[in-house]
Every structure is written in structure tokens, then in C-alpha cells.
UniProtKB/TrEMBL annotation:
Residues 165-431 form the Transposase IS66 central domain. Residues 68-90 have a biased composition (Basic residues). This is Transposase, IS66 family. It comes from the Bacteria. The lineage of its organism: Bacteria, Pseudomonadati, Pseudomonadota, Gammaproteobacteria, Methylococcales. Pfam families: DDE_Tnp_IS66, DUF6444. Residues 49-90 are annotated as: Disordered. Residues 53-63 have a biased composition (Low complexity). Residues 12-92 form the DUF6444 domain.
Length: 486
């Protein structure tokens, strides 16, 4: 590219001929094109620097210090820290007398200072909770053998079916599963805690091997959860990236308010989404990931929180794109606010429904104008993609009871993300297959308010004694959705 050598300290000399004028004009046009390319690149880099958890899929832990300061910049309320005056009291209820392990009595002196006798009329209970000194329990099973006095044939006793063939009983195997699947401890931390709390020493290999039978015993309950979730009327789906190590599997989640089903798959495409959903025919709530788009459009709800995050990115751009993004962002936030008020009214309010229809028309009009105004640039392409996805944002008015966000699935994936960050996680194919099973049981028990440890212990006891697990979770039956009023 030809460049002009101009001395900016003095005016440039005027071209003398027509050919020189054309050469200068062409060079200026080329310089202008180069400047526009540089300007577009600068804007792109500035936009990348401004990315954060509020306008992209980046987690809050990876926000820049500036973004974190902006996120924490809340207005002070002027109130003191801690409990506020007039808040409801939270007190521990007294344990019933029949559940108390030990009772100690303390009586007053039998005679008053004035010389009179003191009659006992009642007592004030003071209960102290403490942890007992714990120790592991060892049961030695002695298998005797003998020999026939006539023919000399050997005879040997046999262990009952309910006696484990290994060195770990159902309580210990369930406890190891609880520490890893519920509290996200690594195997080394489980090994250290076993020795510290119980005085038991097991190798890392033995602790890891205890998950092999547990994985087989969890199979029937895991399949029960998967079948029940796929029969639900509303379900949320999401996925998260694999661990940055030897594991190559993505974790997929299909959840409801009462159940959570997880699946590992090497892909993030439509094949994996189809395996997760199976024969699911209900209303699906997801983010804008295209792998779920084989689900029927009229029963597919996109997450408005993800939409607002995308619009925040457009609104952060300079010029007309930022102005259009601000208008779209304002319309989206008004829609979410109105939708929440409509849900809080339990859906009979015609006023909120008419307002939603007006906001829907406004949002489409703003998208069409922005797409036409920006043509084939980045903002125009984003607006046209939103127009293509537009029906999937408006399923909730036709099916009351459908949430506007995908928070249910994202909350279900959160323990997995924490587990992945705080331990070595999975280093084998077996571990990658064990993770979704234990997570499905743990998250479902938490949502049903069922004790995870007792459930695991029951499953392990049945698996060791009978070889087949007949235990099933009390999963709820699907409830019909409210009918939308015309």
C-alpha cells in the first residue's frame, strides 16, 4: 500500500498536476479504509476487554478486578451488620424427654437463708448438644472347617449372603460416597478424614475401588430418576465443559424442581442433547445453545437471563449499536418485570397479559429496525439471530407455570463446578461414569429433602446382601400446568 510522507509541522505542498491529485486522493481513500479497519479492530478488542459475567458466559470467578469492583458497588443501606431489630427469632427447639440420652438433676438447697424449707415446684431444662467419641466397629466372621472322621472329606462353613465379601461394610461405602458426591472431597481428603475421624487406614486404591460396586448399585435408582425427569411437564436442560485434564466428557443436566438427572457425553452437539432428552415431550427451558433446537419450537422456552446478558454486550458498543442495544435491553427488562408480576398474580390478571403482548410487539419491532439498520455487521447478525429465535422466548405466556429463566438447571450444575475446581476430580473413564450417578442421587435427595447418607446406606446394604437393589426414591407424579386464558 502506497503511503504519503507528510510533514505535519508545516502544510503539505499542493499537487501540481491532475495525475498527482488523483494519486493523493487514492492514497487518502486507502488510508481511510485502513483507519476504519484499525478502528473496527480497536472496538472489537475494547469489547473483549469489557466482557464479564454480566454480558457473556464467563463465570464471575474470572471477572477482572474492575468488573468485580463494579459488581460489588452496592449502595450502603446505613444499617448495622448482623440481625436487624424486629427480625423473627430463630431458636433451637428442645428435644423431647424420651429422646434425651442422659438427664442430670440439680436441686436447690433444702433450706432458705431465712430458716424456712424450700419446696421444689418445677425445673428449667438446659440441653447441651455434643458429639460422642467415635470409633469404627469391627466384626470378625470366623469360618470354620472340619474333616469327616470316616472318609476324611473336608467340610467348610460359608458366610451368609448379607456379610460383605470385602473389608468395607455398607455404612463405610455409603460414607465414602457421601464425602465425594455430597461434600466434594478428593480421595486423598477422604483418606485423611477416615484416619483423623475414625482411626481407619485405607489406601487410595481401596477407597477408589469402593466406588465400583456402588456404581452398579446406583444404576436402578439412576435410571428411575432419568425416566421420571423425562416424563415431567417442565424440565430445564444445561451443560458444562469438561475438566481441563484427562477427562473429555461434558456434563449434561436435565432437572426439575424435585429431580436432577445428569449425563456425561464426549460431545456438546445435538446427539448428546438427544441422548439427554430421550422421549421427553414436555416444555423445555434452556439457554440459547443450538443443540436443543430439535425440540419443538412451541414447547421450548429460552432463558431471558441469557438474553439480557447478550443484550448487555450489544449495549456496551459505541455509536448506534450501543443505542439500539440500550433500547432492546430496556424492553427485555420490562418484559421480565411484567412477567414476574403476572406469575405472582397466579396468571388470572388480564392487565399484565395485555402488557406482555404490547412488550412482545415492541421488542420485535426494535429487533427488526436494528437488524435493518446495521445490515451485515456484528450487531445486525445478532439481531437477525434473535429474530429467528424470537418464538422460543415467548412460550411462557401461552403456558403459565413455565419459568422465564434457566436457573433451576444452573443451580444443579453448580456443585459439579465446585467439585471440579476443588479436587483432582476424575482421572479415568470409570470416574467419569460414576460422577453423574452420584450427583443425580445427591441432588434429587436434596430437592426431595431426603437424607443422602441414609439413602446411600440403604442402597449399599441391599446391594451387599441381595445383589440386587430394589430401593426406589419417592419421586412425585407430574402435575398438570395451568391453562392459559385466551
Amino acid at each position: 500500500m502506497e503511503r504519503l510522507d507528510l510533514d505535519l509541522s508545516r502544510p503539505p505542498p499542493l499537487p501540481g498536476t491532475v495525475e498527482e491529485c488523483h494519486r493523493v486522493i487514492e492514497a487518502l481513500w486507502r488510508a481511510l479504509g485502513e483507519f476504519q479497519q484499525i478502528q473496527a479492530r480497536v472496538e472489537e478488542l475494547e469489547e473483549q476487554l469489557a466482557l464479564g459475567s454480566d454480558n457473556s458466559s464467563q463465570p464471575p470467578s474470572q471477572d477482572s478486578p474492575k468488573k468485580r469492583a463494579e459488581r460489588k458497588g452496592k449502595r450502603p443501606t446505613g444499617r448495622k451488620k448482623g440481625a436487624q431489630v424486629g427480625h423473627p427469632r430463630h431458636e433451637r427447639a428442645l428435644v423431647p424427654a424420651e429422646a434425651v440420652d442422659e438427664v442430670r438433676h440439680y436441686f436447690p438447697h433444702g433450706r432458705c437463708e431465712c430458716g424456712g424449707s424450700v419446696a421444689v415446684r418445677g425445673f428449667r431444662p438446659h440441653q447441651v448438644f455434643d458429639l460422642p467419641e467415635i470409633r469404627y466397629r469391627v466384626v470378625e466372621h470366623r469360618v470354620y472347617e472340619g474333616r469327616c472322621g470316616c472318609c476324611g472329606q473336608k467340610h467348610q462353613g460359608r458366610l451368609p449372603d448379607e456379610v460383605p465379601r470385602g473389608q468395607m461394610g455398607p455404612g463405610l461405602v455409603a460414607w465414602i460416597g457421601l464425602m465425594t458426591g455430597r461434600y466434594h472431597l478428593s480421595l486423598r481428603e477422604v483418606e485423611a478424614l477416615l484416619e483423623e475421624q475414625w482411626g481407619l487406614r485405607f489406601s487410595l486404591g481401596a477407597i477408589s475401588q469402593s466406588q465400583i460396586p456402588l456404581q452398579a448399585w446406583l444404576g436402578p435408582v439412576y435410571n428411575q430418576i432419568g425416566e421420571a425427569v423425562r416424563k415431567a411437564l417442565i424440565a430445564h436442560a444445561d451443560e458444562t465443559r469438561p475438566y481441563r485434564g484427562r477427562s473429555i466428557y461434558w456434563l449434561w443436566a436435565l432437572t426439575t424442581d424435585q429431580m436432577a438427572y445428569f449425563l456425561t457425553h464426549y460431545s456438546r452437539g445435538k446427539g448428546a442433547a438427544g441422548e439427554l432428552l430421550g422421549d421427553f415431550q414436555g416444555i423445555l427451558v434452556t439457554d440459547r445453545h443450538g443443540a436443543y433446537n430439535d425440540h419443538p419450537q412451541d414447547s421450548h422456552q429460552y432463558c431471558w437471563a441469557h438474553l439480557i446478558r447478550n443484550l448487555e454486550r450489544i449495549a456496551g458498543r459505541k455509536g448506534q449499536a450501543g443505542e439500539d442495544g440500550e433500547r432492546l435491553l430496556r424492553a427485555a427488562r420490562l418484559t421480565v418485570h411484567c412477567g414476574k408480576l403476572w406469575q405472582q398474580s397466579h396468571y388470572p390478571s388480564d392487565r399484565y397479559r395485555r402488557r406482555l403482548e404490547r412488550l412482545k410487539a415492541l421488542f420485535r419491532r426494535e429487533l427488526e429496525q436494528a437488524a435493518q439498520r446495521h445490515g451485515d455487521n456484528k450487531t445486525g447478525r445478532s439481531c437477525r439471530k434473535l429474530l429467528d429465535d424470537f418464538p422460543r422466548f415467548w412460550t411462557f405466556p401461552d403456558h403459565p407455570g413455565v419459568p422465564m429463566t434457566n436457573n433451576t438447571a444452573e443451580r444443579a450444575l453448580r456443585p459439579y463446578v465446585i467439585w471440579r475446581k476443588t479436587s483432582f476430580f476424575s482421572q479415568s473413564h470409570r470416574g467419569d461414569c460414576f460422577r453423574p450417578m452420584i450427583l443425580s442421587l445427591v441432588e434429587t435427595c436434596k430437592r426431595l429433602k431426603i437424607g443422602v447418607y441414609q439413602t446411600l446406606r440403604t442402597i449399599c446394604a441391599q446391594g451387599m446382601a441381595e445383589g440386587e437393589v430394589t430401593f426406589r426414591l419417592p419421586l412425585p407424579e407430574p402435575q398438570p400446568l395451568p391453562v392459559a386464558r385466551p
